[in-house]
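Late entry, adenosine-5'-triphosphate complex.
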Amino acid sequence: KERTFIAVKPDGVQRGLVSDIISRFERRGYKLVGLKLLVPSVGLAKEHYADLSSKPFFAGLVDYMTNGKAPVVGMVWEGPAVIKQGRVMLGATDPKAAGPGTIRGDYCLTIGRNICHGSDSAESAQKEIELWFGGRGEV
Ligand code: ATP
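Prediction complete; structure with ligand written out below:
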């Protein structure tokens, strides 16, 4: 069964969008198999965004995810094509390119505050579920 890691980032939590994001996945028919509220450690955030470590915005991104002004909601969702369809439901990474009806297209405007994260491949999903949930995929 296919699983993906979806996170509501601190801006999404702070703005009260957790229930809407969960609701969209539930109504689509996906199954929630893991859920946790946490302020990630710097180590966790750096590992999660390891691919971006050379980018100029990396330090700001890690600080934003970990400074505790608001927590992150990490989730594991299961169901047919959930990795690809989860990304479709989130919308384009840059909200300026995200269409209406997507989470980012409906709720945000800037890439640095784009509300949510979704694994972009089977390999990323496996790695991220391991990283955020210790591999169990559920807690
Ligand atoms: P995500 O992993 O969040 O779903 P993605 O994999 O589609 O996004 P990446 O290019 O890996 O996109 O970027 C990961 C995250 O880094 C983005 O969601 C965004 O929060 C942040 N980010 C990317 N580009 C920028 C930028 N130019 N300025 C600020 N933050 C950025």
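The beta strands are 3-8, 31-38, 72-78, 116-118. Will revisit in the morning.
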